[in-house]
Design a protein that fits this description.
Length: 94
């Protein structure tokens, strides 16, 4: 992961997140303040990842301690899925 975008809430805008991003070379971007359209996009993406993770762990009958591995696999799956913003190429290849 090179970039991480979140809303401006303290859930992701804090010293712990800053340290994690710096340690792993991740650029943390935040959405514009008072622009609910961008916040909804970020919140929807986060909700999708959480739902995917819970489904993966539940279907595999795996304990929640494997959340990190499930999350990495979710990101990999999403990077191989087609998106309307990229024509004829998946995000992984871009």
């Amino acid at each position: 992961m090179k970039y991480f975008q979140s809303d401006n809430r303290t859930k992701f805008v804090n010293s712990t997140m800053d340290l994690f991003c710096k340690k792993n070379g991740i650029i943390h971007k935040t959405t514009n303040l008072y622009l609910p359209e961008q916040n909804n996009i970020a919140e929807h993406a986060i909700a999708v990842f959480f739902k995917m993770g819970h489904c993966m762990l539940h279907m595999a009958s795996v304990d929640l301690c494997y959340w990190g591995e499930a999350f990495m696999y979710m990101v990999h799956i999403c990077s191989l899925m087609a998106t309307s913003s990229l024509k004829d190429i998946v995000p992984h290849k871009a």
